[in-house]
Amino acid sequence: MRALEDSSVPNYSAVVAEDLTMMSERLHHVFAPMSGEDLLITGGAGFLGYYLLQAPLAWNHLHPDMEPIRVTLHDNFARGVPAWLTALSEDPAVSGNLRMVTRSVLDPMPDDEPRFDWIIHAASIASPIFYRQFPIETMDANVDGLRMILDDMKARAETDHPVKGFLFFSTSEIYGDPQPEHIPTPETYRGNVSCTGPRACYDESKRYGETLCVNFAQQYNLPIGIARPFNNYGPGLRIDDGRVLPDYARNVLNGEDIVMLSDGKATRTFCYVADSVSGYYMILGGAAEHPGESFNIGTDLPEIDMRELADRVVALGKDMFGYEGQIVQKTSDDPEYLTDNPNRRCPIIEKARTLLGYEPIIDIDNGLRRALAWYESQEER
Ligand SMILES: NC(=O)c1ccc[n+]([C@@H]2O[C@H](COP(=O)([O-])OP(=O)(O)OC[C@H]3O[C@@H](n4cnc5c(N)ncnc54)[C@H](O)[C@@H]3O)[C@@H](O)[C@H]2O)c1
């Protein structure tokens, strides 16, 4: 296999090039059957889209002897077209196999779109800060947008061109705030979720989305897989996204103190995005074999609190950039910032390990180092 050189695609930092090469190798068994076929990614202009889009394009690049995977992105670009996507779409090495369509997933599928062989539905507002501002839009993408795709899959199931695999992005938030005896949390746990609280637009629409997926898979025998991501971080996550790690990274890169908007005691396991996106593609590739199944995708170790995360970021900041700031505690201006925020979150990932061969391999310090290096290479702070 040829190495992916930094210079081959604009704006690839060394970290990204290394991640994509690793993902291409790990996902060869998923990507090879997609060779010469059409893949649709909805919501691909967001954080996870960064590697969801680039991984198959990198695989194409590394396998010039095989028919390329043709990638189409549908996004409403509500927060604009990110610079990385503009650069990618203008790069002659990949642009022939990447199409960008401005479309809300609530609008009908344009007649001239190809009959996609593989579909990933990632479109949804995902950051708590933004979904609390746009709760109806959040629910619509996860319920009505999903339903349109499922209806189309059902209509095509008996034709000579059925969809071969579909992946729905659910969330670990469907478990809500699990009781201590259900942490670490397996897929069989039913959840402890408010149906009316400030996070309910997200949690409950993902829960109903899963119910739609399971029933379409069972009733119409469709190849549908469901991912439940647990706290991903790394390249692609905008520094102004409002999630905890980019907030800390921005503080470090601007030489400010790290601001913790809580008592720092809530715990999470943080999964580096090259690992998690590998897991998502494994679910897509295995959807026909495991229809209607949901998989926790994340990492099971270490479970750390927000204070420890801040400590680790400070230590890395010192080591990498000579950072001299400290950690300070403040209260968010948003009164709902912590309402229904789970105290602990940690997955059991045995199901994905056993059935899909999923294994996170980038440990937290390596992942944080990679994430900080990527943020440092970006213009926006
Ligand atoms: N990142 C995580 O750790 C995480 C955790 C749990 C679940 N998820 C799920 O994974 C998926 C992707 O997450 P992300 O972190 O990349 O989110 P993101 O907010 O960074 O990106 C989502 C993308 O969806 C697009 N979008 C939103 N509504 C749309 C609509 N109606 N039509 C078309 N496009 C629309 C946005 O413009 C954006 O580009 C989401 O479904 C999210 O709920 C992510």
Task: Catalogue the ligands.
Answer: nicotinamide-adenine-dinucleotide
Radius of gyration: 20 Å
End-to-end separation: 36 Å
- Poorly predicted ranges: 1-11
Question: Helix content range of the residues, please?
Answer: 25-40%
CATH superfamily: NAD(P)-binding Rossmann-like Domain
Going by helix content, strand content and strand pairing, the class is alpha/beta
SSE ordering:
HHEHEHEEHHEHEEHEEEHEEHEHH
The coarse overall form would be globular
Which strand-content bin applies to the residues?
5-15%
Largest sheet: 7 strands, parallel
Strand arrangement within the widest β-sheet reads 3-2-1-4-5-6-11
Number of domains: 1
Number of DSSP helical runs = 12
Number of strands: 13
Short précis:
The chain has 381 residues and is of the alpha/beta class. Helices cover 39% and strands 13% of the residues. The chain has a single domain (6-237, 271-301, 343-363), classed as Rossmann fold, CATH 3.40.50.720.
In words, what does this structure look like?
- With 381 residues, this protein is of the alpha/beta class.
- It has a single domain (6-237, 271-301, 343-363), classed as Rossmann fold (3-Layer(aba) Sandwich), CATH 3.40.50.720.
- The chain is built from 12 helices and 13 strands.
- It has helices at 14-26, 28-31, 47-62, 83-90, 128-133, 135-156, 200-220, 244-253, 273-285, 306-321, 350-356, 364-377; strands at residues 38-42, 70-75, 98-102, 118-121, 165-169, 224-229, 232-233, 258-260, 267-268, 271-272, 293-297, 304-305, 327-329.
- A 7-stranded parallel β-sheet has the order 3-2-1-4-5-6-11, with helices on both faces.
- Strand 5 (165-169), helix 7 and strand 6 (224-229) form a beta-alpha-beta unit.
- The radius of gyration is 20 Å and the shape is globular.
- Residues 1-11 have low confidence and may be disordered.
